[in-house]
Amino acid sequence: MQxxxxxxxxxxxxxxxxxxxxxxxxxxxxxxxxxxPKESSNFSAFPKKESPxxxxxxxxIDEAEDSKPQEPANIESAMLGSLPNDxxxxxxxxxxxxxxxxxxxxxxxxxxxxxLAWTLLAVANNAASFESLALPVxxxxxxxxxxxxxxxxxxxxxxxNPALRFDPSKRxxxxxxxxxxxxxxxxxxxxxxxxxxxKVAGGGDVSIGKAVINLLIILAVAGGVLAYYWHDEHRSFxxx
Length: 240
Fold this sequence. Notes:
- This protein is mainly alpha-helical.
- It has seven helices and no strands.
- The protein has a domain at 97-160 and 168-238.
C-alpha cells in the first residue's frame, strides 16, 4: 500500500515538472518571437483580388461580333483618317488662276524670243531667203500678239493687286525663264571663245566678224529677257 502511494506521488511530481518545462518553453518562444524582426512585403498590404470569371456560354453571337475591331472601309479612308483634321492630300499640284495666265505668257515669250533670234541670225549670216525665214517669222507673228495680250493683262492685275507679284506660279515660271536665258548666253559665249581660239590656232573658216555679230544677237535677245526678269523679281522683293 505504501509503495503504491510513493509511485503515485512520484508520477504526479514528474507530470508537474513536465508541465512547468512546457510553460517555460512556451514563454521563451513568445519572447523570441517578440524580439525577432518582422519581414515586410510589398504585396502583403494589398489584398489579392481574383479576376472576374466570365461565362463564355452566356455571351451571344452579336456581342462577340461587336467586340471585334472595326476595319476601315477602304485604304484611302484609313490614310485620310490618320491625317490631322482629316484633310485630303493633294496628289497633283495645280496652278492658280493667274498662274495659268503666267504660263501662257511665258510660253509665248519663249517662242517669240526664239523666232526673233532665229530671224536675226539668218539675216546676219546671209540666209535671209523666204524659205529659211518662213518658220521663225511665223513664230514671231503668232507669239508676239499672244505675249503682248497676257503681258498687259497681267501687269494691269498686278497694279490692282500687288500680291500677284509673289504668286508661286509666277515666280516659278520667272525663274525657269531666267535659267533658260542664262544657259543660252553662257553656251553661246563658250562657243564664241572656242571659235576665236580655233581661228587663232589656224583652223576653222568662220569669220570673226560674224561670230561677234551672232554673239551680240544672242546676248541682246536672251540677255534682255534675263535682265528684265532679274530686275523685276529683285524689285518686287525690295518693296517688301
